[in-house]
Structures are given as structure tokens and as C-alpha cells.
């Protein structure tokens, strides 16, 4: 089905939700709230259902994906669900030999260091991830008017895992390839852009109402390198899903110097981490974009009054912005008290009710 044949815009039942209205920079009944990693280790019910089940296996079981995705919606009353997955799922689905090792993260058996290594990256087909289609269908039925945000890793972050062979502090192999063999680098990111686009289209075809592209490691880049060597691949992803007419969100960590470029890449909403106040983030991003963020996740370990003071500072910084989605400046930390998240959602809703 071509983009011309697809229905334009998100599913009708979620169109007027607070989240989608904020993403479109329209008036909202209250500032919408959701959290990155809201479905995860901070919830005891998550730990119970995941007990004895490997991370990648849990991402490939529609029943588990559905249950885990719904848990924070039930508990916290957030304004959106985020599809439970991992950024390496599409790579695993096309046959890349990798695993997620507890306490380490994704580990790749054969890192990409030469042109011959690119043969690991074939295009992703919908049939490779039928469990995603099934899970999204189950979720949208359960969620009703609550939007489901689709999920994928950005080409640069995926490339970093593939080239380094796992998580990296300095990204030395990644940058060596980027600078030393620019043609191979460009082909690597282009292939990953195609895989990521296909993964998001599967979720959108099954009924997701918005998508977020996570570029977790983009903050390791200088602006000039991001613009010339990375932004074209991210732009390709956003362009590939533009025809769906759903909000497209872009988020990275440590990307204060990249916010304007991330906005240029094609997203409708740009997420800021906690290092840049939202009013300044909006200035850097430029007009025409909604802004997401950006409470420091560590603040949730402080007493309730301190959490509310810091949350109000975020809301004050966003007061004049035409579109604001309240979130953390990165993911929920594993030892976060779930009740602190529930109280934070209530606080934001109560103090922004129109």
C-alpha cells in the first residue's frame, strides 16, 4: 500500500486526545504527560511478568508486550502509552546476531567495521515482525482513546551499537568509521534508515497514533557532523512516515547543541533533556514545533514537595509555548518509586487544567 492509499492522520478515536492536540500545538484540556521508560523496571508488576523471560523474548510476545505497555497507563493515568520494545528488535528480526545482556545492554556478535559486514543488514519486511503488528492491534483495542506512541531507534544510535559491538562511552570505532570511510558510513546509515522506517510503518499500519525516534547517542556528535553525516538519515525516516499524518517526535540525550538541527530533520515535536530549560530549548528548536520534556529523572528521588517545585519550574518555562508535552529529560530510572510518578501525573494535570 502506498502512502497515498493510506488513511491520513491518526486513528479517529485518539485524534482529539490531549497528547495529539499538544503535538499539533492546539489548545489542550491539560498538559499531557507520558514518560520515557514508563513501562519498565520501576514497576513491580513489570518485574513479575518479566521474571525468567529474556528482554528480546519479551519484546516478541504480543501478550507480554500488551500487558507491559498497558501497566503504566493503568497505574499512573498517563496520557499516552509507549510501545514496549527495544531499539535493536528490528535488527534482531532481520537476522543480526545480537543479544541484550543484563547489566550491559545490546551486544553484537559481528560488529560492522567493513563493507563486507554490511551484508548483515537486509531490508525489514512486515512479515519479520508479525508479533509487532499483533501487539499493536491488541493495544489499540484496549487503549481506546488513549494514544499509542510507536517506537524506534534512530540510525545513528543503531549504527553506534553495530559498529562498537555494544554500548560505548566514547564511540571511538563509530567515529573512526564515520571520518575514515564516509562512503561506507553513509551506506550504513542509509540502510538503517530504511530498516527503521519499515519498523515504524508496521506500527503505524497496525494503528499507532504517533511515533518517537530515539537517538540516544546523538549527543556525542558535534553539530557540523550531525548536520552532514547523520541528519540526512534521520530526515529520511521522518519523511518515510510523513504521509501518515501523525505526530513525529524526535528525542536525544545531551543534544542541547543539536536541538535546532533535530527540528530541521523533520519532526513535529522535539524532546529536550533536563540540561536546557524548555523556553530556551524552544528558542533553539525554532518556530513551528511542539516541545517535549524535561524534568530531570533524578528529581523523582527527592521529597514530594521538591518534585512538585521542579515540575512547576518546567511548567513555568513552557507556559508561553504553543505546544508542550510533559515528560522527563530521559527515561524513568529503574529504582524510581512508582508512586512518585503517579503523583507527578496528577500534579501536572491538576495544575494545568484549562
Describe this structure in words.
By secondary structure, the protein is an alpha/beta fold. The chain is 44% helix and 12% strand. The strands form 2 sheets. It has a 7-stranded parallel beta sheet with strand order 1-4-5-6-7-8-9. It has a two-stranded antiparallel ribbon with strand order 2-3. The longest helix is centred in the middle third of the chain and has 24 residues, at 182-205. The N and C termini lie far apart (41 Å).
Q: What does this entry show, briefly?
A:
The protein is built from 14 helices and nine strands.
Radius of gyration: 19 Å
Q: What are the low-pLDDT stretches, counting only 5+ consecutive residues below 50?
A: 1-7
> How would you state the average pLDDT, rounded?
95
In spatial order, strands of the major sheet run 1-4-5-6-7-8-9
In whole angstroms, the N-to-C terminal distance is 41 Å
Alpha-beta classification: alpha/beta
Helical stretch count?
14
Proportion of residues in helical segments: 40-55%
Query: How big a fraction of the residues is strand?
Result: 5-15%
Shape summary? globular
Keywords for this entry:
two-stranded antiparallel sheet; 44% helix; seven-stranded parallel beta sheet; 9 strands; 14 helices; single chain; 354 residues; alpha/beta
